[in-house]
Amino acid sequence: MDRILIEGGVPLEGAVEISGAKNAALPIMFASLLTAEPLDLKNVPDLADIASTQKLLQHLGVSATHVAGEPSRMVLHAPSILSETAPYDLVRKMRASVLVLGPLLARTGAARVSLPGGCAIGPRPIDLHLMGMEKLGAAIELEGGYVHAQAPNGLTGAEIRLPQPSVGATENLLMAAALAKGESVIAGAAREPEIVDLADCLTAMGARIEGAGTSNITIQGVTSLHGAGHAIIPDRIEAGTYAMAAGVTGGSILLKNARLDFLGAAKEVLEAAGMVLAPAEGGVLARVAPGGLKGSDAMTRPFPGFATDLQAQFMALMSVADGAAMITETIFENRFMHVPELARLGARINVHGASALVRGVKELKGAPVMATDLRASVSLVLAALAAKGQTEINRIYHLDRGYERLEEKLGAVGARIERVP
Ligand code: EPZ
After folding, report:
1. Whose CA is nearest to atom 17 of ligand 1?
2. Ligand 1 mutation pick, 23, 98, 238, 241, max ligand atoms within 8 A of CB
3. What is the pLDDT of residues 112-132, one digit of tens each?
4. What is the pLDDT of residues 363-412, one digit of tens each?
5. Is 201 a catalytic site residue?
């Protein structure tokens, strides 16, 4: 298994190109199930989760291929659906696989999807996805670890009220409602930029959607969708991560293609912690303000609040700030697995329930650490970039799920980083 070695202590300077957003690309790839015509996507990142999705879609009958000479372009084409089952082995590896449910049901009237089960960051149920599909007229049964959903006469528009703004449920329901008969309303919808990107792609395919990006989305169902071309938005979590790589090393990085508006409250949170994020030619410039990093609190919230997917990285940043920071996780129950690993590098962190108190230290020191999930892993990379001496990060397959060419991008701004088999 590969490891990453980092020799920390170098302020990172230069430019990093932000890739297409993983969490926008995944649902949009699943949207290819909704039409018999090709979906031509640009800015698709080269990641393990994208490859898993390609595999699952191919199993269902979608040809999903990269265009020769254009590595970030992918054409997905599902002239007919060959299987209505998303098997355990493929869903277990990647929870986002549950996003086949809405499109398969809408296109074929049936879907059989393995229950994703727990994952490292918490139990992550799919009850809201299922409740929404039932409102749209599907009959749902759970058997043998699988969700069997059926709507032989098609789905019918309905009002669906989400008690909490689930990103995945909003996406699954948007795709299902696009082909349902009549009007649907998703009230209490998630407002993440990835939802807007999916709605934009569906609209290009002929769907009629209003209100994406707000808590109330209205969909007028159409009888069929057609092919389209669409470019995936830049990855706001990757951008926030590299911004903090600049911060934690006391450097300055131009985040090419990044969008400040996609960062939501992360901009204010990072600025309160002593960073500057400013619009710049072609992207966003991230650097530490002259006063240096200072301890500052943060609480994760749905967009436009501070993203849970940036919480671990912010904890690494606060580990070397002047003063203390209280970091509260409100979205997932078990998303502090990076704490003991950061402690191995010398961070001083106490967890009390959903909050972690981080007392900044003058210096972190390199040590062997182990990655546990995607964002936890990259928080260890950030801490290692700041630490004195060498850090060895194990189980880095988590990083390959969500960070495209991480070593290359960090190496280009001066990090001493290498992957060893
Ligand atoms: C998406 O997961 C992202 N994944 C996650 O990114 C991200 O952390 C999360 O949204 C929150 O922003 C993708 O987009 C592929 P949710 P999702 O449904 O859709 C509860 C990463 O690192 N809930 O918005 O699964 C749930 O338990 C990943 O890239 C229910 O109770 O998240 C959680 O507490 C990790 N019942 C909250 O809602 C449901 O049916 C928000 O989850 C669905 C969700």
Report:
1. 168
2. 23
3. 999 886 667 767 789 999 999
4. 999 999 998 899 999 999 999 999 999 999 998 989 999 999 999 999 99
5. no
Residue 45 near residue 402, CB atoms below 8 Å: no
d(CA 288, CA 26): 33
Tell me the residue type at 23: N
53 Cα: distance to centroid of ligand 1 (angstroms) = 17
User: Amino acid identity, residue 302?
Assistant: P
Atom of ligand 1 nearest to the CA of 165: 24
- Return the closest-CA partner of residue 124 out of 178, 154, 156, 167: 167
Mutate to test the pocket of ligand 1, among 167, 174, 333 (most ligand atoms within 8 A of CB): 167
First to last CA, the chain: 6
Question: Over the chain (421 residues), what is each successive 10-residue block's mean pLDDT?
Answer: 95 98 98 98 96 95 95 97 93 91 97 82 85 98 94 97 97 98 98 98 98 98 98 98 98 98 98 98 96 98 98 98 98 93 98 97 97 93 98 93 96 97 90
Structure tokens at 162: 């989400």
Beta strand 139-143 pairing with 146-150: antiparallel
Structure confidence by residue, pLDDT tens digits, 68-108:
999 999 999 999 999 999 999 888 888 899 999 999 999 99
Give the residue from 293, 365, 298 showing the smallest Cα distance to 322: 293
Distance of CA 15 to the CA centre of its chain: 22
